[in-house]
Design goal:
Blueprint: H1 15-22, E1 27-28, E2 30-36, E3 39-45, E4 48-53, E5 56-63, H2 67-75, E6 77-82, H3 89-93, H4 99-103, E7 108-111, E8 114-117, E9 122-134, E10 137-149, E11 155-158, E12 161-164
Antiparallel strand pairs: 1-11, 2-3, 2-6, 4-5, 5-10, 6-9, 7-8, 9-10, 11-12
């Protein structure tokens, strides 16, 4: 018998405690978009990270029950749109409602066959290269095929509120 087998199994903290704790971790906010059979779809995310330089890749985490996830996997491509402070209202708009409500009044254009938000300060179009189910989410790796960026500072989430990044 090893020492490890004598240790008690870890007990996870309650979900509300974890949510409160993680809210104290400043995080960027973005909108993941793709093209569905009835038009553009998208959702707000706060889990995006650079994955690799060779090939240029990034990773997004989408809820396993997300309608956007279903379309990203079916389409095989998606865009990550980082929201500047001037477009902070899109955080909530892309977090609730139907696809039509999420895109209502939102200017976008198609790049490599997926919608890219014109108000985004950074956009990256990716082809899905892998996916890994993790608990109640799916990690989607994408090879970056197109990017655009400007100098508008991004919006971050901290303590349940949006904040501008600035001087």
């Amino acid at each position: 018998m090893t020492t490890e087998s004598l240790l008690p199994a870890p007990t996870a903290v309650p979900g509300d405690v974890f949510r409160h704790t993680m809210a104290r971790l400043p995080t960027g906010v973005a909108v993941v978009t793709t093209e569905g059979p009835d038009g553009p779809v998208g959702c707000t995310v706060n889990a995006v990270m650079s994955l690799s330089l060779d090939p240029p890749s990034l990773l997004v985490s989408l809820a396993g029950r997300s309608r956007t996830l279903d379309q990203v996997l079916e389409r095989g491509a998606f865009a990550v749109n980082v929201l500047p402070w001037s477009a902070r209202h899109l955080v909530r708009q892309f977090a609730t409602g139907t696809a039509a409500q999420r895109f209502a009044g939102v200017p976008w254009r198609s790049e490599h066959g997926v919608p890219v938000l014109t108000a985004a300060s950074v956009s990256a179009v990716c082809e899905v290269s892998d996916r890994v189910p993790m608990y109640d989410h799916v990690l989607v790796a994408g090879t970056v095929t197109w990017t655009r960026s400007d100098d508008q500072p991004p919006t971050v989430l901290y303590a349940g509120a949006q904040h501008p990044v600035g001087d």
